[in-house]
Every structure is written in C-alpha cells, then in structure tokens.
Amino acid sequence: MRKIISFMHISLDGFVAGPNGEMDWIKVDEEIFDHVGKRISEGDTALYGRVTYEMMQNYWPAAGDKPEASKHDIEHSKWYNNVQKIVLSKTMKDEDLINTTIISDNLSERINEIKQQAGADILLFGSPAATHSLIQQNLIDGYWLFVNPIILGQGIPLFTGIKEKIKLKLLTTRQFASGVTELNYIVSSE
Question: What sequence ranges are listed for the domain Bacterial bifunctional deaminase-reductase C-terminal (predicted)?
Fold first, then answer.
C-alpha cells in the first residue's frame, strides 16, 4: 500500500508559517535542493491543498524554461509537469487540469482508494490546512520535516486538532550546513 508522507519546513517551535502565512524564514540552498530533488524524483504523486497547488501551478510549469532557470528549477519543473497531482479543495473543479485530480468530498474514502493503487509514496507538500484534515483522519503515514533554526513564537502550527497520540519512529536525520535539520519519521503502531 502506498503511503502519504508530509513534506514540510517547520520552525523549532512547530510552526509551518508565520501568523499571516509568511515563509520568508525558511532556509533553502543548493544542498537542500539536491537532497530533496533526489527523494522526490522517486515519487510519482504530489498532494496539495488548494492554496499551495495554486502557488505551485503559477510557478513550476514554466520555471525550467526561463533563461535564468537554475538546475533545481529545471529539474523540479520537469518533475512537476510529469507527476500526478492530487488537490484537496471544496471550490476547484478539475476540468482541463492536466495530471490533476481534485478531491472535494469523502476525503478518507478517496485517499484510501488512491493509497491502494499501484505507485510510489504520495508526497504531501506544504499545505497546512490539508495536512490538518489528513492528520485528523489518520491518513498521514510519515513526516519528512525540515526543522529550521528559528523560533517564531506564533503562526500556523503543523500539529493542531489532534485528538489522540500519534506514535512515530525516526528513520533518518541529516544536518545541513545552513543549520536546517531533516527528521524523517513514519507513523508507528508500537
């Protein structure tokens, strides 16, 4: 069965964005881009909330075609254009969207159907509201977190509305030169 892995940058105090959605505190560099690029290139499905999807859709389809495109932009643009995309949204319609499926109702049932299909892990990128919905229905199987060396004090938390404990097993860690630490967990039944 396929797993849903939440990929998220997070502050040391557990926020994924500032109070107004600010993400200017997130540290990314070539070392992180290369590491993440290798992992996501193995994936064939990306899961987004509507806001994150619209942000991605406004940039990535043509990012690799620009004259000033970086290696990362070219690689990620190619991946983004080919990957199957799933968007959680109550307002979007999926007519004329290439490689994109919209889920607007029966979230648990629809996600579990997709998890039963052949393919690689499903990577949930950013999307705090979508992540919260999936956490509340126990649909996330792992967390791939990039802990940034900052304490925000307030903002949009990653973990909210959790009604029971979620046990995790640490798979890997990695320290980057920027001070960002990767923590890779799977949900554990132990």
Answer: 2-180
